[in-house]
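tool_call: predict_structure(chain=1)
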Amino acid sequence: MDELQWLAERFEERRARLRAVAYRILGSLTEADDAVQETWLRLSRAETSQVENLSAWLTTIVARVSLNMVRSRQARHEAPIGPHVPDPIIDPAEDPDPEHEAVLADAVGLALQVVLQRLSPSERLAYVLHDMFDMPFDDIAAIVERSPQAARQLASRARRRVRNADPLPDSNLTGRWAVVDAYVAAARDGNFDALIALLHPNVLLRSDRGPKPAGASVELHGAKTVAGRAMTFSQLGLEFKPALINGTPGLVSLRLGQRFAVIGFTIAAGKITEMNILADPDRLKRLDLSPFEENRH
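tool_result:
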């Protein structure tokens, strides 16, 4: 076995971890795959004979590539305007993809992914690498070009924002599915009181319909407002399919057999505290929703 083949095999063993790092930093599955591919290209051209810890070296490279991609995106003013829902990782409720489970090993729900995307690039990287992947601050400091103490402060600020914005979800998966099922029944029946009973008084609904038409993406607060929105959609004849959205109970909705939206829920103390809805037609086209479309009934 030559050296390049050996490196390729070692790289494949670590691909899921590298994709997980990139996804958490970028919030985009396509960009995460691009970052992983760029990491492989750099590995294949590098002199690695002096590398003592290949996993740490690869994690550093994919993190640096991802950070540069975020900064480049901001420099080109490509940051989303208005409510934005990161790319969801979607699986059938009963048959999760093992590769997706590897990417979601830390159960980074869609609500947490939203919070991560609102951090500064350096805060995001420091938090992801240290709190999720146990990278020492000395190594993180080299990537963000700060001192180890400054890197620690970046992670600390990020941790506070995550803690304040992302409520701890219920651990009982069966209980969370029961809440989602009850929401579907109430929305389908147009039962306003039942919807109110399921929603936290300060529930947040974030709906990302893409850049066009202007104003279509919204962020709504409060149980009555969110329930009223659900009542409106109850008239569209939507078909709801249970799905794991970033490893947590959620829905894929179809209208007349066509993909309509992907809905992620945050459920705490038996109430829906947050809903993240991706309904951007262009982004929905790029998602693999075939398991839900092929098994319509």
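agent: The domain at 173-294 is CATH 3.10.450.50 (Nuclear Transport Factor 2; Chain: A,). Proceeding to next step.
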